[in-house]
Design a protein that fits this description.
With about 325 residues, this protein is an alpha/beta fold. About 30% of the residues lie in helices and about 25% in strands. The chain folds into 2 domains: about 1-130 and about 270-325, Alpha-Beta Complex (Quinone Oxidoreductase, Chain A, domain 1); about 145-260, Rossmann fold (3-Layer(aba) Sandwich), CATH 3.40.50. It has helices at about 40-45, 120-125, 125-135, 160-170, 180-190, 205-210, 230-235, 250-260, 270-285, 305-315, and strands spanning about 1-10, 10-15, 25-35, 60-65, 70-75, 85-90, 100-105, 110-115, 150-155, 175-180, 195-200, 220, 240-245, 295-300, 320-325. Helix 3 (about 125-135) packs across helix 4 (about 160-170). The radius of gyration is 20 Å and the shape is globular.
Amino acid sequence: MKAVVVKGNCDLEIMEIGEPQIIKDTQMKIHVTTGAICNTTDNKIYATDTPEKDWPNDRFPFILGHECTGRVVELGKAVKGFEIGDRVVYWTVNGRAFADYLLIDTEEAAVGKVNEDAPEDVAAMMEMVIGSARLLFRPDGTPLIRKGDKVAVYGLGPAGLIYHRLARMMGAAKLCGIGRRKLRLEKSLEMGADFSLNSQESGYIDEIHKRFEGHPDVIIDATGGDVVREMIALGAPDARIIAYGVPPFQWSDRYPELESAGMRLPEFTGTDSARIALAHCVEWLHSGKFGLEPIISHRLPISQIARGLDMCRLERDTTLKVIVSINQP
């Protein structure tokens, strides 16, 4: 099968390798149709000499990618609720998605079926959507964003914009996007924000308090940077904090700072939370009201995947989500 294999720092090749075979009864094998580049992880492990620091299972050479959609072609004996030919989306901690075939372990992943009329490009990025949504539910399934909440989102890359739509689907009454780049500030409004503000301009926190007529109920960090002090200044002691970004520090090191301000991060974030989130995300996708298409800025064939990676890393003023055609019908 063909696969996108990373051989070294910014060195990849589309090459023929052996097709993966089911070795566990809980695995399913899918024929990948479309993938989506993860602006953070894919580039971190592509443009580095030490990919294992950001994706522990990957050492050169490895198959790139963890966001895709496809159809079931084989099922392990213990897999229930799926049939050959089903169109699926998923969330997993494992990668190797940019290839003709992918193995998904249903014991470790959240996997769901999608309708035939679900947009292919949106289905391809549902791994990221589910991964974002899994931070928004408690173990009993109740949402952390409640109807009528005021929500502020730091970071207006694909994840932050996905959180715009998740917040609206969960009933947020007011929504603010906080970022820096012109395209993304404009896209924030398109994705449902009541207003968007440049975090580099002085007084933006006071402006949010003014427009919200108080503090936000929920603050989401999708920056990948350090906005802990800003979130503390923006929120009230009972604000719900959602940390999606991968910052240059360990969140556990900042717990005392957050707790002293009366704030805590959710602790229900694994596969069980992803399964709860998947059910909601698939329902919203099928409703036709999810509204994720504007996040997609580019569509490329697999032969141009290196170009897509460079765009995500080096051309952030004009690039959001890049969809990659792998085996589209």
